[in-house]
Amino acid sequence: MRYPVATYARAGIFFTLYGLVKYLPPPLGDACRFAVLKLFTASIRSWKIKDGVTVWFPEGVSIGRNVTINEQVFLDGFGGLEIGDHCRIAHGCSFLSEDHVFDDPATPIWQQGKRTGRVVLESDVWLGCGVRVLRGVTIGHGCVVGANSVVTRDLPPLSIAVGVPARIVGQRGENA
């Protein structure tokens, strides 16, 4: 897939600027990352972006208010990524809004293009360490996803999900 020259230029500028601040320690580093991301993302309203967070296709990323994104998180905005208000994202999580087409066994996978799907975290979601969220998934308001889970399907609001693939094991407020 070829992109226009302007896309490569924009990406080059982003990766150069972001590369200068990606590993700066907090709190100064958080503020610097916010400043660079403010120039390139679709929308960003939180400044708690910890060191080592990787962002691809920032123009497809929206981050709400009072969000914390911890160390070594991967944000892929190619197919769209929307993170709602008051979300907590533990270190090592990945958001993958694209994957490879592999339907034709006679054609190398790298030549078959990509599938995209918007990833949405509604408000007040908490993801444990190492969670993977795949393309086209919406995680509903108030969900909690356990460490190292792989979310392949939508989760309804207030769900508690764990595992590979993630399965619902409860609802928040059940035992209140």
Automatic annotation (TrEMBL):
SUPFAM superfamilies: Trimeric LpxA-like enzymes
The protein, known as: Acyltransferase
Classification lineage: Bacteria, Pseudomonadati, Pseudomonadota, Gammaproteobacteria, Lysobacterales
Residue stretches in coiled coil: none
Organism from which the protein derives: Luteimonas lutimaris
InterPro entries: Hexapep, Hexapeptide_acetyltransf, Trimer_LpxA-like_sf
Source taxon at top rank: Bacteria
Gene3D superfamilies the record matches: Hexapeptide repeat proteins
